[in-house]
Each structure stands twice: as C-alpha cells, then as structure tokens.
Amino acid sequence: MNITAADVNKLRQMTGAGMMDCKKALTEAEGDFDKAVEILRKAGQKVAAKRADNETKEGIVLTSVSADGSSATIMALACETEPVSKVEAFRTLAEEILQAGVTNNIKDKETLLSTTLADGRSVDENITELIGKIGEKLVITDYATLESAQVVSYNHSTGKLGVLVAFDNTQGTDVTEVGKDIAMQIAAMKPVGLDKDDVDPAVVQKEIEIGMEVARQEGKPEAMLEKIAMGKLGKFYKENTLLNQEFVKDSSVTIAQLLENTQKGLKVTAFKRVQI
To answer: How many CA atoms lie within 13 A of 126 on its CB side?
Structure first.
C-alpha cells in the first residue's frame, strides 16, 4: 500500500522515532498504526539487546526533596554519549521516572523499573522504547532514598553528580546551610563511610596489608609492621570517613566538630553520593 509522508509524520509524532524507521514500520505493518508502534517497540528491544554490553559513561543525576524536608530521592539515568544526555526526551524521561519513584514511595531500583508511568507502561518499557529511538544503551545506574529529621540535597553544575545527606537531632532547626556545605564536602572528598565502623571490613583489611607491605619495602623491622600499618589506617580513616575528615572550608575543624559547633547533638545519620 502507499505510505504517505503525512502517515510517516503522524507515527513520528506518536513515537518520536526517526522518519525512516517510521516509514519502515508502517510499510511492514501495512499502514496499521498500532502494529507499527509495536514494531518500533520491538526494534527498541533489539537495540537494547545488541548494546547490552556497551559502557554508559554519560547521563544525568537528579534529586528530589519532600516538601517537609524529611525525605529525599536520588537517581542516575546513564547513557553512552554526552550528546544523548542533553536530548530533551532523555531528560524528560529521567524526570518522569524520578517523579514516579517519589509519588509511589519506591525504595529500590528493581521496584522502580516495574512501576507504571503516566502512559500506562512500565519504566523498563519506556526505557527500552527510548533506546530504540536514540540507538544507545540507557540504564538506571543508581536509585536511593533517605529519610530523617531533615535531608539536604546537592546537585553539581555538571548534572552528573548528586548528594543526599540525612541529619538527626536538628531540634526543629533548619540545617540547610550547613547541610549544603557537608553535601559539597561529600561531593569533593568522596568519603567511603560515615565513620570508622561504616568502612567495609574488606577495605580495612586491604589497607592494613598495603600499610604493612609499604613498611616492609621501606626496610622496617617485621615486628613493627602491624603497628606501622595501624598508624597508616588511622590516616586512612581521617581522610576517607566523613566525620573524621577536615572541613574543606576550615581545616581547623573536622566534620564531627562542625556539626557540634553548629548545634549540640546534631548528627549526620547517612549520606548517598551518586556520580555518572
């Protein structure tokens, strides 16, 4: 049958797919728009399968804080190239997914993928369809929520880095200002844990082994190696756990001291740093 330019344009407006893809789908569907849409969606699945092993080094990180500030959500939608991360359809879908997670109180990525968006299809189906239109692998690489007396968010100007920080014992005081400072500290200094006890035991053991080997290479006595390594471990904690880090804006105080100076008993209970 004859597929007109108007038909192709109509399908393109419906799906956002390329002109040639729309023409091919309409031809295969013999002019049936519903079948053509299904063909385009299946094409998206094929593209997704082909690009499943591709690396996703670009994308966008979004955050959302509740009106009362007691909860917040962070999400990263990744793609393969920077130009795609700037495409309106990509950014719109990311915002719709985040909003669906917030509205439905979703706590984990797996549940989020099966959540229905406004068009009646799941997040996973929408991602697959956009893969077919854009021709790149798209994936939600991170999704998390934090709840506490107050949660503060920070988004870096690149759009590829975001931080959530949860505070307790605020005593009803707005801690947004110090919260932003600490969130930016987390963004810049990349702490691996809140305090010493939060560091993965495997990481601790590895640091001890490295410290002992460095001391051994320096010719230190074997009996002294463990003691030297423990000293190096203390330095590791100071540099890599949030509460023990020096405050980047004032190196005379640690983050723990900054909290106490801001308000007695103020605590950071958790944080989440997400970067593309």
So the answer is: 24
